[in-house]
């Protein structure tokens, strides 16, 4: 099995998306926070990128918690 090199650009896109979502929440606009849609047919994540994805997952959890609690950052 080969690694799907699109993951590098997908993670860059997720990072940019998270920054936009964090800014929306900081601006008091949780209604603008939307999920990121992964492109179809993306292969398995290369193991060396797992730590980066884990960091983004934690950022996402912070955003979700803030929205669920009805607060802005």
Poorly predicted ranges (pLDDT <50, ≥5 residues)?
Answer: none
The backbone outline, from C-alpha atoms, is elongated
Q: Based on helices, strands and strand pairing, what is the structural class? A: mainly alpha
Number of DSSP helical runs: 2
The largest β sheet comes out as: none
The counted number of beta strands is: 0
Write structural notes for this entry.
The chain is mainly α and 73 residues long. The model has no long low-confidence stretch (mean pLDDT 89). The chain has one domain. Helix 1 packs parallel to helix 2. The chain is built from two helices and no strands.
Briefly summarize what is shown:
The chain is mainly alpha-helical and 73 residues long. Helix content is 55%, strand content 0%.
What key phrases describe this protein's structure?
73 residues; single chain; mainly alpha
How are the SSEs placed, and which strands pair?
Elements: H1 6-26, H2 50-68
């Amino acid at each position: 099995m080969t690694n799907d090199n699109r993951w590098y650009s997908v993670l860059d896109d997720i990072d940019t998306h998270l920054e936009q979502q964090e800014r929306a929440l900081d601006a008091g606009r949780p209604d603008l926070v939307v999920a990121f849609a992964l492109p179809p047919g993306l292969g398995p994540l290369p193991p060396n990128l797992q730590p980066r994805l884990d960091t983004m997952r934690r950022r996402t959890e912070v955003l979700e918690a803030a929205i669920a609690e009805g607060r802005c950052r």
